[in-house]
Amino acid sequence: MATDQRLRDFFPPPPGLVESAHINNRDVLARMADQNLEGFWEEQAKEFEWFRPWTRVLDDSNPPFYQWFVGATTNIVYNCLDRHVRSWRRNKLAIIWEGENGDQRTFSYHALNREVCMFANVLRSMGVHKGDRVTIYMGRIPELPVAMLACAKIGAVHSVVYGGFSVEALHGRIEDSQSQVVITCDGGYMNGKIVELKNIVDEALKRCATVEHVIVVRRTGQPVTMESGRDYWYHELMTLPVARTASGNSRCETEEMDAEDPLFLLYTSGTTGRPKAILHTHGGYMVGVATTLKWVFDLKEEDRYWCTADPGWITGHSYIVYGPLLLGTTSFMYEGAPTYPYPNRWWSMVEKYGINILYTAPTAIRGLMRYGEAWPNRHDLSSLRLLGTVGEPINPEAWRWYYEAIGKGRCPIMDTWWQTETGMFMITPLPETPLKPGSATKPFPGIEADVVDENGNSLPAGEEGYLVLKRPWPAMLRNIYNDPDRYVSQYWSKFPGVYFTGDSARKDEDGYYWIIGRVDDVIKVSGYRLGTAEIESALVSHPAVAEAAAIGLPHDIKGNAIHAYVILRAGFEPSESLIEELRAHVAHEMGPIARPEKITIVSQLPKTRSGKIMRRVLKARAQGLPEGDLSTLEE
């Protein structure tokens, strides 16, 4: 097909970028890792400080319960903060933050460390000890990473719940983790409105017997109920003697942790079943996250890096909080929505702060595409050197718009595939990798991926199958909290000894991986399996379409028929002739079997707060069925 031919086009990296990159020969690294996996990761681990060295890099004697850097002790916060404040980086900016209403704050490594130490002392004074769980439910403000780091510093296990999740979702996560302390805000700003976080916490705690204390950051200043003996203002606690040592210093000793001690829980609903808490640990997660961030985004000391995700998701944990701080990077954080008050908000901040690296989600790119190129063209984006995407496969048209309208044809796009469970990038370009729009390219050095059939056999180029990972990696999940049986059955049972990602993919003749989407996101039409992502990509390749969602609905003859929902770009009006044109366009791009039965033009799509389309909601609405749990719904 014409589309396939177009996608085979390579976009080579700029020569100057390759010459100055940390990694300019991926193949050499990949061969080293293949020949000696443990030695490869051991070299990366030597970049960090350990209280006690490991006796063994990888213990694979009890799969799938792998252990990394066995016998070693460290603390990820020691490597994020303590070691930097002993160096010239103490006065380097760690975080630059802008609120949705325009207010600004900055933290040097020294200032961030002081804030973290004081808050860690506060938590200790409330009886939080090593191994205790703490739930964090906040807006996108600096106190969120401060809370995460303070927990990890004293060995507590943080469970961040995305700010804005429903009462039920929050209650379930607090109850499952048995948290003693909840950290929240009075409210948060999003799209010019206040999200009433404290009120949601109050409702959730009516049925949570384990919570003894609630700490509230004042952000909006709106009135909230403060329960005496339970609720405390963050700013008041930070002025009390408990925030300092007996000598009045804002110091706190960093807890020595075993490499395999728990660092955090992060709940993910997956495609089916109740939410599950993915467990990550200090040592291997630290090594994997820092190595991937440094090599993929080629971070330099002078860079200003912006990951637009929320710290409440795994992208935020790995590549807003821990990864950048491990590398001594200056990170930018923004509180609010990308189009508030106008669709140039992001581009104005790239220009204002001199952002060099921008890492965001395809859904955000498609949403901004709707407004055209005039908005980014108002701003000087010449500071950008590298772009990145995360969260879902990026359709080639959105890739090209990002590359041309934002990167001006000179910024390679690091299209990363990974999961909450993997903790770190798994399939990704490096700056020296020739790119294909829509492909995550090849596995990171040390990662062995494959595409297999129902029986676990490797498939030839071009055939769609199950994406699997064939050997352990340092940042891998260690368990599902309190549910090892589910851990084994969900991830390691379909193909024994092999990690099942739950995604479908194919490899092309160049060994590049093309992620199709979740295995469940497949529509079977007249016996043909069609990925929703492929149908949506075909729709978005039409110049009138900004975003699309495809679902399958029962059909007497075909088994399922394709129904699609589209959002139009600015300047296009809905009409029956346009709908027919879109149906014909999909048939042309994918073949007649993929022609949608019906296309509906809408103004918005149901999405999770991380930007993923909730197709099951569209399916339920179309059939008049119950919509199920909507706690992750954005609107």
Automatic annotation (TrEMBL):
Residues 31-80 form the Acetyl-coenzyme A synthetase N-terminal domain. Pfam families: ACAS_N (PF16177), AMP-binding (PF00501), AMP-binding_C (PF13193). InterPro entries: Ac_CoA_lig, ACAS_N, AMP-bd_C, AMP-bd_C_sf, AMP-binding_CS, AMP-dep_synth/lig_dom, ANL_N_sf. Keywords: Acetylation, ATP-binding, Ligase, Nucleotide-binding. GO terms for molecular function: acetate-CoA ligase activity; AMP binding; ATP binding. GO terms for cellular component: cytosol. Residues 82-473 form the AMP-dependent synthetase/ligase domain. Its EC number is 6.2.1.1. GO terms for biological process: acetyl-CoA biosynthetic process from acetate. Residues 534-612 form the AMP-binding enzyme C-terminal domain. It comes from the Bacteria. Belongs to the ATP-dependent AMP-binding enzyme family. This is Acetate--CoA ligase. It comes from Anaerolinea thermolimosa.
